[in-house]
Write a structure and sequence with these properties.
Blueprint lengths: L1 H9 L5 H14 L5 H44 L2
């Protein structure tokens, strides 16, 4: 925090034109993915989401059966 405060105190406020110029310079350094890369990563994400949705569904169903079995066993033991 002290570094940021020190840097901001010694720094002159930049004008809107300087801000736009610096923004354009930064944007020229940015590399954007190709449409093929975007398509491939989108497919990977969709497959991952489907996989984990199925996995979590199966885990949830398994825990449901386990808890139902424990409840049944407990009811048999206490005679309810």
């Amino acid at each position: 925090m002290s570094e940021t405060a020190t840097l901001e105190k010694g720094k002159k406020k930049e004008s809107v034109g300087e801000f736009i110029q610096h923004t354009r310079e930064e944007m020229s350094r940015v590399s954007f993915p190709s449409s093929d890369e975007v398509r491939k990563t989108t497919i990977i994400v969709i497959i991952g989401v489907i996989f984990f949705a199925i996995f979590l569904y199966l885990v949830d169903m398994s825990w449901g059966y386990v808890l139902e079995g424990i409840t049944w066993l407990f009811n048999q033991l206490i005679g309810a």
